[in-house]
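Colleagues,

Please find the record for the three-part complex below.
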Amino acid sequence: MDDTSKLLLQRLVRRIPTQMLKATLDKWGRLTVEQRQAMDFTQSKWALTQKLLSVCEENKLTLTHLAELEMIHAMENPNQGMWYTFQLLEPENDAQSVELTQFKQQFKCHLSELLRQMSVKIKKHTDEAVWIRIALGSSFSKPNHLKPTYVVHYLQTPYVFVRNLTSKLKPLLSQALTLATRHQGVKEANLSGRNLTSIRDLLMRQYQQVFPTKYRSPPEEEDQPVLNQHIEKEQGGVAAHRRHMAHQAFGDGMLPQLQSAVYMLDTKFRDPNNRTMTEREETFKCVVKFSSIDLLESLRSCASSGIASAPVTPLLSSIPLKGRNYFVVTDNTPGPSSQGHQTQN
Amino acid sequence: MSRLNPFAKLPGLNTASVLLVESEEHFQQSLAEALVEETSVTVNVRLAKSFPLPIENDESRPRIDLVVFIINLTSELSFQSAEASLKYLEPGYFLGKVCFMVTNARSSSVPAERLDAVRRLAASLHCPLLFAEEQTPQGVTNAAERLLTILKAAAGFVPFTTPLYLSNLTRCTLPPDIDQPSFD
Amino acid sequence: MAGEAASLEVEGPLSEAAQAELLELCEEQFAHLEKLQNELLLCEPHFSDSPQEQMQNRLMATEAELKKRQTEEPQLLAGNPDILLHAGKEEVLKLCSQLETVLSCCQAKRDKLRETKELEQKWLEEKTQVLKAAKNHVEQLQKEKEDISVHSMLQDIKEKIQKMKAYQETLMECLGDILEKHVPLPQMEAGPSRRKKSADSQISQELVSLSEILEVLMNKALQSPHDPYVIVDETFWPPYVEMLLRYGMAVRHQENSFKIRLGAFF
């Protein structure tokens, strides 16, 4: 075992919570039953690391085996780190028929053509997702297993989720992905978040949605407790209307968890009280960032409680509708619709 | 501008009506539930977010004997909303039929100036200022009890007392050193 | 007003006549109320929003109320003794409960005050005792000052010096005994190698005992407090120096590691 393997193992043990360590090691399957039973998980992390190091030496495990272990942990805990989304464009005729073995082979083949020092691992997760772990090296150095890039792709869908993408790997990855999935191009989907499942649900519309209609749906029966006959709400209708508007924009059910929404404003400054700024020719550039543990849920409750004015501005309601949380707002496009931004990071 | 008039309607028999105005519509519900528990008189509670009140309710609305503005001290908006609503009240209300109730005054995130502003407002209108604890059921009951005392006087249930008389005794007064910077 | 009229409706059995009378009274009052209400609605509201005028209105209203109160003649609620009894009973009961509340409140307050008083009294007592002790002390000092003489003082001090000297002597002796017993000079031992033995003996001949080291240190500290450092030479057995340094009895010079001084015990 070289120093990198030791370092990787140390980091892994530190990162995996003690109560999950046993299950992860079981799944890994590189230790014999006796070895696994000999592990005492009540020990300190440091002692566990030492023990594991000696076992790995004994089994002659290498860096690639440890990379496997890391990948198992990453797949078990998809909601870590920042995930960015890409969208594949212009599928070719046979794009729908790509299957795993073919994809694996093509992807590896295309990537290794481009770069020699690279370690790629591909695994299929239980929920149809293909997980790819890429450790990149330069032309003079070995693959850096300490900072791998993770790519998650659902076959036959145009979406790719990437974590820890370096600028160096980006063009290579784009090319390999488009070729392996039989598409012609790839672009950023302007959606990012810590919760992989949520952004996946958002993009693949796997949550209860609302469809914008011009007609007001009949007010839903609200299951509010029966009020005392002596208590009456003066503005009960208004409140119900607000709730209705909020539900129209964001739906009733569980919403995917997003952590932030960013708006790049590049518009003219408009404020009747501030003439100096309003009369300027140049546009006023600024970034507006909303952040919260669960952004969409907060927006909905803001709208339904009346903190934000109703109806909800299309800028906010288009987060779930368009499945993105990065917008560039310019004056050129009429109305509040926005223009995609191509270089995000 | 239609304003709420204290004498526009005849009072109901053995009935007192109170209007709770709170921009957050949060505390008013539990407070209302505590208020209607009162048995000696029938208490009608109307809940509103802010003034003006919808005109279509004018018919069904009883004579409002007391208007309570609930101000959450942690929110500037709550104070501004209450302040903006005041002009929709006939001046007759300010002769003892308005009171302010402040919540969250113990929260550490409240700037001292905001409480001073509420005090100033209440003092300038000669209205009583009550403090309420909304987090505990005990606090809600206490707040309701204190409101009921004022409400009964405001609705004329207490012999030999008038709302004006009570408000002259209980109105909020400013401490003389409110404008001095504090050094604590 | 309506409230007053309504509050007259007392629970409990009332004779029919009384009930009828009460109802009539209510009707009368309500009619009066309606009349007033109509008058109110008819008269133009002359209120204005300016705070000054509101203030004046308030003053006027209060004054009017006061006048009404002053001129109002107390009048019987109703002629029927039955009603009066009921109303009175209710009123008295209410008053009773109110007074009870006041009583319990006052009692609580009294208890609190009593507690505070006790605390204060205790504090006062303590302070008086302190004052007494201080006064005694002052008195004593004054007395001493009066009957003190140069001679007796000298005698006193001499005695004290004598005592101190004796005490120091015993301390020194004690220290010497301990040092002799527990930290003797390194003795020559029968070593395995002859060469080493001779080297050892060479050194030990020049070594001084720990008590001597201490003496040097102490003397130096007392004689030249501005420069209490002693140079460590080969006569100091290194383990002893180390021991002194380790237990804080001696301190090394910050710049010159060959110099040590006595720790600052005084």
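The beta strands of chain A are 83-91, 118-124, 129-136, 149-154, 159-163, 183-193, 231-233, 260-267, 284-291, 326-330.

Comments are welcome before we finalize the supplementary table.
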